[in-house]
Known about the structure:
This protein is an alpha+beta fold. 14% of the residues lie in helices and 33% in strands.
Amino acid sequence: MQGIVTAVSRSGVHEFSKDNQPSIRLLAGLGVQDDAHLGVTVQHRSRVAADPTQPNLRQVHLIAAELLDELAAAGFDVAAGQLGENVTTRGLDLIALPRGARLLLGDTAVVRVTGLRNPCEQINGFQTGLLKQVVGRADDGTVVRRAGIMGIVVTGGEVRPDDPISVELPPPPHEPLERV
């Protein structure tokens, strides 16, 4: 499987959206340099409040540009970085990846996929009705989360728009992604 990075984003403060950058630096075991979610332990406010000693399984947030295309077709104006992602991709079905898949971004960076982003009500504060577009229910009643995936940095490096992305799948059996 091959894809491409279409945008990279970060924010040094806890805001909903992140600013696009010419490049970001991933730091092994920590996340995105100069991003508010950088750290060995959890940095998302709600999770810090619950237990600040939890490991940070949400160091890097990735969203498919194809989701942004779908949102635009549904009448929403959402650009790369505005849903809080660090890396916007094209050409990969991120949601279908198994837990433990490794994404090789650019020349050296490697991110191990840990799970699905679980979007919260803040997304409706960004644009009313957007939450329904990224979280729904399958025919069997199970929750379907489409707001991207989360991962941890295994190997650091610079990541830029137009960098290639390769996927290494873990050995079978493959475990489907769950929210982290």
